[in-house]
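Protocol step 4 of 6: structure prediction from sequence.
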Amino acid sequence: MIKIIFKHHRGKLDLETGNVIFYGLYFDTILEAVRFLTDNIVPDLDYEPCYLRGLQCIRCLTDGCIFTGGRWWESEETILKLLLHN
């Protein structure tokens, strides 16, 4: 693994597989990670990975909001309600 930086987001790249890790989340390719790390994720804040029913998410430790699907959500309950109805 080598350390990488994408738009101030620190991560790791496995040169053998091409897999990357940002904020504890695993991505198959750097392009997949880039799609996830939009301009909505501020590099200076603390985050933790989370998964909701297999959906890869990232939780901001500052306010507890969760980023997935290209937007921020206030709670897990809101995301799960939408997942259950779709």
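Step 5 (inspection) to follow. The chain has a mean pLDDT of 88.
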